[in-house]
Design brief:
Strand 4 and strand 5 form a beta hairpin. The protein is of the alpha/beta class and 384 residues long. Helix 1 runs parallel beside helix 12. Helices cover 40% and strands 16% of the residues. It has two domains: 128 residues, Alpha-Beta Complex (Aspartate Aminotransferase, domain 1), CATH 3.90.1150.10; 236 residues, Type I PLP-dependent aspartate aminotransferase-like (Major domain) (Aspartate Aminotransferase, domain 2, 3-Layer(aba) Sandwich).
């Protein structure tokens, strides 16, 4: 018996993973789990005990009360999005799988940004879909290279959709209004759908509009969920908002409902808990935004007048730092692990092509972050 090619991913730990595993306890500047850094919500977890959860009455699109709560969440952000346009999933990863099924036959193509999530190639391969990368231009603050995207669309007759991350991960770059217009025009001209990942949208620092509020004649899918919106990665609830011309939107929603009905992955308990969570989420987000702002300010202060450069960002939970290119990325990371017991991620994990970039999480408690960054900067400065 043979197993599928699509599941044959390499599974051995790479050299950096082995190094970290052998090093013992580390100050982990890669940690992106909000529950580890003080963002725990006992009342949210208590909501899972709603006795109504003992009765199972699934709705493939998700419970109406939950979808109405998501609509209220968007309304507070000046986005009009009715519950009839929403489909719930267990996560944004599951939603990607459903959208790849909805939009692509096996072997067809989705265009995805580079750099971006390392997860995308896995999700696409598991659905038999190919990813074609299009570049974000580092020298332009990781803006979309629109001529390159257009060329790749025109060279790829199997293309079915364009994927954007807004703000981008890990670069934090938002899709500017002129880029939005150009993206929609490209999709319109080539009969492509647009998938907009907005899981970090509430943590933007620059001006931008949600794709969920876009009145467009392009079929558009907007992804988000409790993991980032409510800082609750352990409560598995994501959602997809479907926008675009009415006839195509209705057909897409009907097909997406059928796909969702085959899985029914969202638990009753989390759907019952979600309305109270979403209605009370704004103070938690304010607290996190203050944390991100504080840690980024400390990072900038530590790196001022040194050979390290903090790259601009317009949102998200991460910071990119350029190190002197006197060593390879792996050599810098090994030095930080061995001499300072600090873990960081190399930019190439996210397909950042240029060497000398590391990715830091801004979620850590301020005292831990300040200590770790101070030691990182001192170590790099001494060994540049």
């Amino acid at each position: 018996m043979s197993l599928s090619r699509r599941s044959g991913f390499p599974r051995l730990p790479n050299a950096l993973a082995r190094l970290v595993a052998e090093a013992g306890p580390l100050l982990d500047l890669t940690s992106s789990n909000p529950t580890k850094w003080g963002f725990t919500q006992p009342n949210a977890v208590a909501g899972l005990a709603n006795p109504k959860g003992s009765r199972y009455a699934p709705d493939p699109r998700g419970a109406l009360d939950t979808r109405e709560a998501i609509s209220r969440y968007y309304a507070r952000r000046d986005v009009a999005l009715g519950p009839e346009r929403l489909v719930l999933s267990a996560s944004s990863s599951e939603a990607y799988g459903w959208l790849f099924k909805l939009l692509c036959d096996p072997g067809e193509v989705v265009l995805a940004p580079e750099p971006s999530y390392p997860l995308f190639p896995f999700l696409a391969a598991l659905e038999g879909v190919s990813l074609t990368p299009y570049p974000l231009v580092r020298a332009d603050g990781f803006r979309i290279d629109l001529p390159a995207l257009r060329a790749r669309i025109e060279a790829e007759p199997r293309a079915r959709a364009v994927l954007v991350v807004h703000p981008a991960n890990p670069t934090g770059t938002l899709v500017a209004d002129d880029e939005r217009d150009a993206l929609l025009e490209l999709c319109r001209a080539h009969d492509l759908a647009l998938i907009a990942d907005e899981v970090f949208f509430d943590y933007r620092t620059g001006h931008a509009s949600s794709f969920a509020g876009t009145d467009t004649d392009v079929l558009t899918f907007v992804l988000s969920g409790l993991s980032k919106v409510a800082l609750l990665p352990q409560l598995k609830l994501g959602w997809t908002a479907v926008c675009g011309p009415e006839a195509l939107r209705v057909e897409a929603l009907d097909r997406l409902e059928l796909i969702a009905d085959c899985y029914l992955g969202v638990t009753t308990a989390v759907q019952l808990a979600a309305p109270a969570i979403l209605d009370a989420v704004d103070p938690w987000q304010d607290t996190l935004r203050a944390r991100l702002h504080h840690n980024r300010a400390r990072l900038l202060a530590h790196c001022a007048d040194t050979a390290l450069t903090v790259m601009p960002s317009e949102g998200g939970w991460y910071a990119l730092v350029e190190l002197p290119r006197t060593r390879s990325d792996d050599a810098w990371i090994e030095l930080l692990v061995r001499e300072e017991a600090i873990a960081v991620q190399p930019g190439y994990f996210y397909d950042i092509a240029e060497p000398g970039t590391v990715v830091l999480s801004l979620l850590l408690s301020p005292e831990v972050f300040d200590d770790a960054v101070g030691r990182l900067v001192a170590c790099v400065t001494a060994n540049a």
